[in-house]
# Entry
Amino acid sequence: MLPRKITLGVTGGVAAYKSCELLRRLLDRGADVQVVPTTNALRFVGSATWEALSGKKIHDSLWEDVAAGAHIEIARSTELLLIAPATADFIARLAQGRSEDLLSATALTVQSPIVIIPAMHHQMWRNEATQANVTTLRKRGILVMEPAEGPLNNGDTGVGRFPEIFEIFDYLSAHNLLRSDLIGTSVVVTAGGTREMIDPVRFIGNLSSGKQGVAIAKAAAARGAQVTLIAANISPELLPRDKSISIISVGSTADLSRELQSVVNFDYLFMAAAVSDYRAAQLSASKLKRTGADLSLELVENPDLLAIFAARHREQGDNEPGRSHRGIIVGFAAESSVDVEQAAEKLTRKGVDYLFVNDIANQAVFNSPSNGGFLIDKYGSSTSFDYQSKDTLSDALLDVVAKALS
# Structure
């Protein structure tokens, strides 16, 4: 399974017609593909062909809808930017950071992986300037596939030919951009931070942005899972726009508890939400006003949702002998001091299969794009994860956890 949302950029080379087959194969694998051709690419394959094959309207100009900012919207929604074919001219412009058309502007805006499939005359490919540009792009983290060797369009033979489609898919697979291990699975993710109201305008909360849980939801969907994301107070711009991800919004711990009661059948549950441990004993119906005196607020402990859910789920599994397996539950713990033994005790107390622990004292976690920590399981195994992007960490966590049901 490819990333669900792919932008296929097509530049103005004669090999553009081969991207029609590439598009078909991407669609066959379940990808949602938006084609962005350059103006010169449309000289080889017209908009009508791309629209008929993709089922989507083709945009090729920065000036079609300036107010909407097409390149920004495309960049936000894509999980992989695949430019095939890429001409020597486009590679040069991208290396220079130029953005005079929709495709190059999208490439400069996108935060997802970029893969370039060059196709050109072998002398252009071997030219020192082209090789320097390719080196520059690779240093920036852009994947540039080596072109194939064979007959070229003018009768010459050499390295510069558009690779066969299966070779492109092999290249994507080698760089972990083809994942299918979660096809047919159901994944539930809780994310964000619950809030406990004190009065109509104030609440007890935490600093969780929900970025880690959202990243896990997106990574699972990209690998073929049907995902339910229970989002606690997450900013709308952070929420994924993916038809395979159902989003349920909640506010308080009680709201989250009610939603969890309806979660029965699942393969994986990631409890990444930061759940408030306490709530106000009394909710004031009106705003508490300043009186000039100190205010004492009585707090009561919230139920341990993770432990309660895990116990209920184990009981259901014991009472349903016909189940082929029980779902895997992954808990999350943000700790000011990290101790493996204490984490193991917490895992046992919560009754979960895995517990991911991160160190909030020595690394930025809340509202940060990065995270790190270690994952322990109920058998005592531990896997350490360096501080890294929450996106890459999500895939790394899924790599470990997915093996539990394989």
In short: The chain has two domains: 5-174, 186-405. The radius of gyration is 25 Å. The mean pLDDT is 88.
